[in-house]
Amino acid sequence: MSLLGRELILGVGGGISAYKSAELLRRLQDIGFGVTVIPTRSSLNFVGSATWEALSGRSVNENLWNNVHEVPHIAAARAANLIVVAPATADLLAKIAAGLADDLLTNVISASAAPLILVPAMHPEMWLNAATQSNVQTLRSRGHLVIEPDEGRMTGEDFGPGRYPEITRIISEISEFANIKSDLLGKKILITAGGTREAIDPVRFIGNHSSGKQGYALAKAARNRGAEVTLIAANIDLPHLAGVRTLSVGTAEEMQDSLNIEFPECDALIMAAAVADARPVAKSAHKIKKADLQSIELEANPDLIAEISKIRRAPQVLVAFAAETGGLDASSIEVANAKLINKGVDLIYLNDVTDGAIFGSDQTSGILIDSNGASTKCEIQSKDTLADLLLDQTLTKLG
Asked: 159 with 272, same domain?
């Protein structure tokens, strides 16, 4: 399983170890999650809403009957990519196993298809109780992760299994269960996507067939791996990506202006956009009559990535795309190699767009060429798969 994003609900049960979930919240934020806390009413006897709001930076609601017109349990369930309940009391385990939903947290769990992780913490007698063990077995049989509690000192003089697990183990098990990569945490990734359009008049333009799907796949993958992502999107008709800062542009000049502002702050730039090579010397303010549309005088657009490479700092990584027709033969590879050298980039992805292939598709194929001379043939695969491959290589270049 893989996460579509990094929105997490942290459910907090009514146990004395609820205070330990404050540290868990911090560590979840450290691996790139936006955390919304939903405490049970009984848990507020141990840790109040003010603490959760201060740590999460978000409002906290435990009442199913607040803002009923907004149907909060459905909205929260749909927004969550992962639900973690810590501590999960014997009562909560029993309710979830039985499918009961009598408060906001259990309603959200009941309504959500997100992966569910439960972190039991209770006295040894309660953990070893036959009913609790049966509920745990039921929950695991449904595909939920129930993290085994630690053994140790409880409240008072009690000692045994049922102790809240160490935070590092919880994070490790969550990451493995949900297949979370966090290798881009702390990195700023700048991505361009789509195709620029150069106006001829208010109706016509010079453009291309780029859909922006590859750039979006890269932005989503980088976000999911913990990066701070800025996407410069040119004429794209795709849904907004939550957690990605998106700047909309139309022309090559507008994209260049955005790049000049954003590039100095990024660790890596991936130029997945198809930038028009030329633009009309003059744009007509009025629609040109068909009879007068005999010829258009053009001028070259700047080579955006070549210009950017002139101002790069040593650690910054540049990734470019090259589209050729006629197959991925030796001559097209030679052209791509020349572009890699002339543009001063670290990696270039070459694909064959004969007869409009790749454009608008969810699939891609091509050759990834490295500035060190290595090349990797990428057989037909999803653009999501290629996105992770490009990010792997980018991360290697970042060291």
From this structure: no
Shared-domain flag, residues 94 and 242: no
Per residue of the chain (399 residues), give pLDDT as tens.
334 467 899 999 999 999 999 999 998 988 778 899 999 999 999 999 999 999 999 999 887 777 766 666 787 888 888 999 999 999 999 999 999 999 999 999 999 998 999 999 999 999 999 999 999 999 999 999 999 999 887 777 778 898 999 998 999 899 889 877 788 888 999 999 999 999 999 999 999 888 999 999 999 899 888 889 999 999 998 988 877 899 999 999 999 999 999 999 999 999 999 999 899 999 899 999 988 888 899 999 999 999 999 999 989 999 999 888 777 778 888 889 899 999 999 999 998 887 666 787 888 888 999 998 888 888 888 898 999 999 999 999 998
Q: Is the pTM of this model over 0.90?
A: no
The encoded tokens of residue 36 equal: 């919304």
What is the maximum alpha-carbon separation in the chain?
94
Provide the annotated active-site residues. 208
Instruction: List residues bridging with 320 in a β-sheet.
Output: 271, 348
Contact 344, 318 (CB under 8 A): yes
In this structure, is residue 2 part of a structural domain?
A: no
**Is residue 247 domain-shared with residue 141, that is, in the same domain?**
no
**What is d(CA 56, CA 45) in angstroms, rounded to the nearest whole number?**
19
| Burial class (CB within 10 angstroms; exposed 0-12, middle 13-18, buried 19+) of 237 | exposed
Cα–Cα distance, 373 to 235 (Å, whole number): 34
Q: Detail the DSSP E strand segments found in 225-374.
A: 228-234, 245-249, 268-271, 278-280, 298-300, 317-324, 347-352, 363-370
Q: In the chain, which residue ranges form alpha helices assigned H by DSSP?
A: 20-30, 49-56, 72-79, 90-98, 104-111, 124-128, 130-141, 167-177, 213-224, 252-262, 304-309, 330-343, 383-398
> Is residue 183 assigned to a domain?
no
User: Domain range for residue 238?
Assistant: 188-398
C-alpha 252/C-alpha 273 separation (Å) is 10
332: closest CA among 322, 341, 342? Answer: 322
What's the rounded Cα separation, in Å, for the pair 265 and 334?
A: 32
Residue 237 C-alpha from the chain's centroid: 19
